[in-house]
């Protein structure tokens, strides 16, 4: 309303308020003719510019002839007659009429004086349903929710799988084809079944803090294998503008069987990822990754109609180019910057590098194993002993859950469950004796090559020295020569006897009467003395020692032969 109209309406409202009983109608009629509006419009405009007293509340306000049980029955009928898409097949009037006709409700009042029945109107029933909190619009209202915030990039990732409108051609031609809506829809299930195994799935991953979108396409179905493969690829450092990588602290997903499969749990447990699945039928919890699918459908996949794709590898190459460009250029409405700019704010402490693809795949199929603690407080795992003496509450004979450490081969992880029910890892070191053996084995090829080289050099030196022996020894006056960096010597070995097959030689010497060449050794049987201590206790030179404790320090060492 303009200022002139407002001023005129204020004047009319004041005149009507000051007019006597029965005179307001004439004022309203004159104003309608002057302003060119109907009586209803005039009264509505007057209400906007005037102050009126609050209407007195009725004594029976909020009360209804419709009982709560009847309201609940009407509400249940309306809910059951509603499709999943929200289309309501029954109106309130239809539901009330049907229930009345079948004698389930009365939905009205009876005059006690005349006995006349007055049915409640549709509006009265609708108001009663709202007063009871049973109106379908109230029941269909979404549940309240709380916004969550991630602390930094790679703090929370969301992942989801979507069935695309792409499928592989199976008619002799190669490539991917966009599904034609005229051929593939609900009324032609045979066509959908024919290409079911050739459909292409996409996995979307979003970094919650920055909104960075990672997309990768797979074939087959939504499975634990496909999810692990995509997650492993996303965690790898790919270089260039495709910046998203590293191990997230939390992975948030829907509670589908593929997402909570053993492979997924194994890998996340080993990498220290907290795997959280939201409640069923609560897709809004992973709304960011659902929105990512919408962005991909509107900005990437429409172009596939105009650019033929001949293989899944080519499709993923296009997806990599698209996500690198989109995340680096599109400004996010939440933080007002590009997704790449925000992700690059990650610090070195927050960026946890992922192990290689091969190690990640091994972690996915290798569940933690139970290992028994030995009296030395060690456990055997993957052919190596690990010291678990530092594990809190460890006991000899109990079993610990052990898994490999993705980043260090000389360390294993003990899986512990905290008071809050969450799993934590305790790192245990490889037993040092085994480490020495590993070092020896690691350098064995180098040692062998050095020993071979030493033998060659020694043979060469000996050959030269033999050729110059007279010069070096003063024509045999000495049997050594000082070569400044070392000394060479010639030494005659004393005569020695070599025996092969000692038992046969002894028997033959006895047959030939040559027992003098056989040495018989007499010695005291100490084990027999320990068994009969009392018999020898008074013999000089024999004493029994017992209850003696030795303390020794035994360093680990390894000789290279």
Automatic annotation (TrEMBL):
Coiled coil: none annotated. PANTHER family: INTEGRASE PROTEIN, TRANSPOSASE RV3428C-RELATED. Residues 149-347 form the Integrase catalytic domain. It comes from Salmonella enterica subsp. enterica serovar Typhi str. CT18. One of its GO terms (biological process) is DNA integration. This is Integrase. One of its GO terms (molecular function) is double-stranded DNA binding. InterPro entries: Host-nuc_inhib_Gam, Integrase_cat-core, RNaseH-like_sf, RNaseH_sf.
């Amino acid at each position: 309303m303009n200022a002139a109209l407002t001023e005129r309406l204020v004047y009319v409202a004041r005149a009507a308020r000051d007019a006597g009983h029965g005179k307001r109608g004439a004022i309203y009629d004159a104003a309608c003719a002057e302003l060119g509006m109907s009586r209803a419009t005039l009264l509505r405009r007057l209400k906007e510019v005037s102050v009126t007293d609050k209407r007195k509340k009725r004594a029976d306000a909020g009360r209804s002839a419709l009982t709560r049980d009847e309201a609940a029955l009407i509400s249940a009928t309306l809910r059951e007659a509603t499709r999943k898409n929200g289309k309501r097949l029954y109106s309130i009037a239809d539901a009330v009429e049907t229930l009345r006709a079948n004698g389930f409700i009365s939905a009205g009042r009876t005059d006690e004086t005349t006995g006349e029945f007055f049915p409640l109107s549709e509006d009265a029933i609708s108001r009663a349903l709202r007063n009871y909190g049973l109106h379908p619009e109230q029941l269909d209202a979404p549940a309240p929710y709380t916004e969550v915030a991630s602390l930094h990039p790679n703090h929370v990732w969301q992942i989801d799988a979507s069935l695309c409108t792409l499928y592989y051609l199976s008619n002799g031609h190669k490539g991917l084809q966009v599904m034609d809506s005229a051929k593939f829809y609900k009324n032609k299930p045979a066509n959908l079944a024919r290409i079911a195994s050739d459909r292409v799935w996409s996995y979307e991953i979003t970094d919650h803090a920055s909104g960075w979108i990672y997309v990768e396409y797979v074939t087959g179905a939504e499975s634990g294998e496909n999810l692990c493969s995509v997650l492993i690829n996303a965690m790898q450092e790919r270089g260039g503008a495709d910046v998203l990588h590293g191990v997230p602290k939390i992975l948030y997903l829907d509670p589908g069987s593929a997402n909570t499969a053993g492979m997924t749990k194994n890998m996340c447990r080993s990498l220290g990822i907290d795997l959280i699945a939201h409640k069923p039928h609560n897709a809004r919890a992973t709304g960011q990754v659902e929105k990512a699918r919408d962005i991909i459908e509107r900005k990437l996949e429409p172009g596939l109609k105009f650019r033929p794709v001949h293989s899944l590898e080519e499709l993923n190459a296009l997806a990599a180019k698209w996500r690198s460009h989109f995340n680096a250029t599109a400004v996010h409405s939440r933080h007002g910057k590009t997704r790449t700019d925000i992700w690059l704010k990650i610090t070195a402490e927050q960026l946890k590098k992922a192990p290689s693809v091969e190690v990640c795949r091994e972690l996915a199929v290798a569940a933690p194993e139970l290992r028994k603690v030995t009296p030395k407080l060690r456990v055997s795992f993957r052919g190596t002993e690990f010291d678990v003496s530092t594990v809190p509450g460890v006991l000899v004979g109990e079993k610990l859950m052990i898994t490999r450490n993705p980043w260090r081969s000389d360390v294993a992880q003990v899986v512990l469950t905290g008071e809050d029910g969450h799993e934590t890892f305790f790192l245990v070191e490889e037993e040092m004796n085994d480490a020495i053996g590993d070092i020896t084995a690691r350098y064995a090829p180098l040692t062998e090559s050095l020993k071979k080289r030493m033998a060659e050099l020694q043979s060469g030196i000996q050959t030269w020295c033999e050729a110059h022996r007279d010069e070096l020894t003063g024509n045999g006056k000495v049997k050594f020569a000082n070569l400044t960096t070392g000394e060479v010597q010639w030494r005659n070995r004393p005569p020695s006897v070599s025996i092969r097959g000692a038992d046969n030689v002894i028997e033959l010497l006895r047959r030939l009467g040559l027992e003098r060449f056989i040495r018989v050794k007499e010695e005291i049987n100490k084990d027999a003395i320990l068994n009969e201590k009392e018999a020898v206790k008074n013999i000089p030179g024999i004493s029994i020692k017992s209850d003696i404790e030795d303390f020794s320090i035994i360093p680990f060492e390894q000789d290279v032969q």
